[in-house]
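Morning run. Coffee first, then this:
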Amino acid sequence: PSTPAAGPSASPSGSPSPSASPSPSYPAGVDPCLLGTWRTTTATNYGLIDGDRVQYTGGAGVISVYKADNTVTYDYDHSAPYVADYGGHRWEGTHRGQAVFRYSAVDGEMLQSKISSTARNTLTRDGKYNAGGATTYNLEPGRYRCTETTLVETSTLGNYSAESVRVG
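And here it is:
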């Protein structure tokens, strides 16, 4: 969580010192720590196969860009697949395209809503096409921990987690 920056220091005459600069102002729901470009290093999510909840891991390489206008863009074009072993088969889900969300991030808690998406998912079983179509998003409240170099995101319901590094 960020803390408010102190105002400019005053000189003995009461006027602001020339070295002090005002802190930028951000809209409600923008944590300045999030602003910039991040690359996912690892992620976990859950999906359904034959009605069973199955854990997928992978997804490295997703690029997310958080902006001060409360939007975040996810670019999946160079990401690794999510992989699950289930029922004696290897399942791989590959996302391509982009999705844009509106977000609100306050004190380590985040809410998102989808604005637009061209993202598509292809699911294979043992390397053979199984299903595909528009990527669906199950939006749920989440938590995040942000530092200058790392971002960790988890869903409140435990359905998703990701670790990212700052790349810009």
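The chain is about 0% helix and 55% strand. Good start to the day.
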